[in-house]
Amino acid sequence: MDEEYDCIVLGTGLKECIISGMLSVSGKKVLHMDRNKYYGGESASITPLEDLFTKFGLPSPEETYGRTRDWNVDLIPKFLMANGQLVKLLIHTGVTRYLEFKSVEGSYVYKGNKISKVPADEKEALTSDLMGMFEKRRFKNFLVFAQDFKDDDPGSWKAVPGFDPVNTTMSTVFAHYNLDKNTIDFTGHALALYRDDDYLNKPAGDTLKRIKLYSDSLARYGKSPYLYPLYGLGELPQGFARLSAIYGGTYMLDKPIDEIVLEDGKVTGVRSGGETAKCKQVYCDPSYVPDRVQKVGQVVRAICLLDHPISNTKDALSTQIIIPQKQVNRNSDIYVSLVSYTHQVAAKGWFIAMVSTTVETDNPEAEIAPGLNLLGPVKQKFVTVSPIYKPLDDGTGNQIFISESYDATSHFETTCLDVLSIYRRGTGDDFDFSKVKHNLGDEDM
Amino acid sequence: MAQRGGAQRPSGGGQGKICQFKLVLLGESAVGKSSLVLRFVKGQFHEYQESTIGAAFLTQTVCLDDTTVKFEIWDTAGQERYHSLAPMYYRGAQAAIVVYDITNQDTFGRAKTWVKELQRQASPNIVIALAGNKADLANKRMVEYEEAQTYAEENSLLFMETSAKTAMNVNDIFLAIAKKLPKSDNNARSCWMLQVITFKTGETM
Ligand SMILES: Cc1cc2nc3c(=O)[nH]c(=O)nc-3n(C[C@H](O)[C@H](O)[C@H](O)COP(=O)(O)OP(=O)(O)OC[C@H]3O[C@@H](n4cnc5c(N)ncnc54)[C@H](O)[C@@H]3O)c2cc1C
Ligand SMILES: Nc1nc2c(ncn2[C@@H]2O[C@H](COP(=O)(O)OP(=O)(O)O)[C@@H](O)[C@H]2O)c(=O)[nH]1
Ligand SMILES: [Mg+2]
Fold first, then answer.
1. What processes in GO biological process is this protein linked to (chain A) (predicted)?
2. Cβ-based neighbour number of residue A173 at 10 Å
3. Which residues on adjacent β-strands are paired with residue B74?
4. Are B82 and A252 a contacting pair at CB < 8 A?
């Protein structure tokens, strides 16, 4: 390892693996190391099941859990938006060929102590109990406006008098369509996927784009806008690591990282044991540079093993439930996600539910109770409270580019924005997708 | 919506069916894994090939009497060098060729470790072939044919000595694997696969 590289990437979490892939594809000589002997860091899917129990200091699971090798349990729950940034990255880099996805069966929203399906088409919308009949008409008019909206086409703004995407707030747009509180709640949290209500007084353009992302994603595969990879989210970092390797990236796992070496305030290498690899840049997650990040919040997550689906979801084998903040008197939403044996993440007949939210009190576990209450009997629960770190600077000075911890959002959009921003800060360029050759020898994929 | 392999996919209709299988190559660095694939798929050999960069995903078909077997071949992309191969690599593989270099005893030891790993991690029905490569360098031989053959028999592996350089036994080892693979229509995974979404490369957004 006593060689010279353009970039050294530390940690094989999803963000670091995507960055590593992009750097290798762009012709950089990359060394990618992890202190663990497995890929994925925080974004690994834990297997076999004993490893999950051990991680939480529990004795090995009883036999009822089936073959423990059949389990691949994510630590951070997320789904992919079918038309979102991560899918774009996957397709343009060809990493999709290493992965298989399933469409998530349904998306639900919590309203007045029960859950209702987020309608996936007009037929479902007509019978939905989320809105009364006149409200449905108003909502439809709003939706037509959102769907036709284009950032750069003032012609598409006309339906709302005086509208412009930057100066008009979202609450003004809702007011124009005369939507009631529940519809606004549902639109902002279950369609635009905001975690709190700050968006209401911000430029409407951003919210409208998020609603479009939702409906474009829905249009792609039908049942819900979300996708989930077979064998768990841990496959994603591995796929991007493989991309990086194909373009010449060198991989070393199980490497203790002892020091990031700086000279004159700029990084010059990374020391592991007695060896030092030279480099011009370091890219890493916060755990490799505890003194260069600050804590900005916490996320609480409960991993729950169930032997049954969630009630009132038509026995869906995968689903998402959003509990909008206002419904339970909070400032941020609670997310519930469910995947199962059909995704090769659990033994036959088993389900994995995750309940998560941004921490607001001294008793995080109590905060997710409204989500836990929807699950029915839980066989085993693992609760974590994880700090969210952000880098102290943008890295352009010392050339150490640090990713942010994974947030409480239920999808990968912020993950990708962070990756693209880091790439831009590190290379001074936006990632050029055309640099990826598509024919890496595969003729007919 | 295209479906990626993993499951065999017998295509319907009268005579002859097509089955697709995922095949992975394993073994120490520089034993000739990439060279074997290049010989099998493109009929080429590069004497001074730099350690693998580039092609890491190739397909090639083998015709049996009534069946066409399509191999989806995964190469390691060099991730084996520091023992950092990702589990996704051999996940769902229905066939594996474990390669060693007959002129290097260490690579044979390493091959045995890979076989053990496959028996522990991979699906129980996986077809494993052991390839003693660089058979053209017989004058530098360090691993005896009989030793490897005995080991292969004990572990129910297909076994051949091969040469990516002269093409000796290269097609034959793939053909032997194709013959041994189960080609029944009722593969438990294939019904799940029907609902699985994959994307075509280059699909526009
Ligand atoms: C997630 C989601 C996605 C959606 N996607 C789409 C989409 O892609 N495209 C789309 O077009 N819509 C979409 N919708 C909106 C939904 O399709 C409409 O709510 C639905 O079309 C119902 O419209 P409506 O005006 O007929 O319904 P309602 O207003 O509920 O009307 C129901 C019935 O009452 C009658 N009626 C309604 N108002 C009056 C009135 N004032 N006087 C007399 N009779 C009346 C109507 O004729 C109708 O037969 C979506 C909704 C959701 C929640
Ligand atoms: N003489 C001889 N050399 C070979 C043979 N197969 C591969 N090589 C050489 O061995 C080196 C490593 O081969 P490569 O395919 O890159 O090995 P890999 O790291 O296992 O993929 C290259 O220089 C090849 O030319 C063979 O059958 N005979
Ligand atoms: Mg190779």
1. protein transport; small GTPase-mediated signal transduction; vesicle-mediated transport
2. 22
3. B24, B57
4. yes
Complex ipTM over 0.90: no
Query: Which tokens is A300 given?
Result: 């609480």
Torsions phi, psi for A303 (to 5 deg): -95, 125
According to DSSP, residue B19 is labeled E
Q: How far is CA A43 from CA A232, A252, B41, B131, in A?
A: 10, 18, 36, 36
- State pLDDT tens for residues B116-130: 989 988 888 899 999
Distance CA A34, CA A38 (A): 8
Q: Is A126 in the pocket of ligand 1 (CB under 6 A)?
A: yes
The residues with which B72 forms a beta bridge, in sequence order, are: B22, B59
Closest CA to A31 of A51, A4, A50, A55: A4
**Nearest ligand 2 atom to alpha carbon B163:** 27
Interacting residues of A317 by C-beta distance below 8 A, sequence separation 6+? A105, A309, A338, A339, A340, A341, A342, A343, A351
Kindly report the protein residue whose alpha carbon is nearest to atom 30 of ligand 1: A133
Q: Nearest residue on chain B to A228, judged by CA atoms? A: B197
Please state the pTM of the whole predicted model. Answer: 0.84
For residue B202, pLDDT over 90 is answered with no
Return the C-alpha torsion angle A135, A138, A143, A148, nearest 10.
180
Q: Which two tokens stand for residue A353?
A: 């539910």
**Beta bridge mates, B71:** B21, B60
Burial class (CB in 10 A: 0-12, 13-18, 19+), A113: exposed
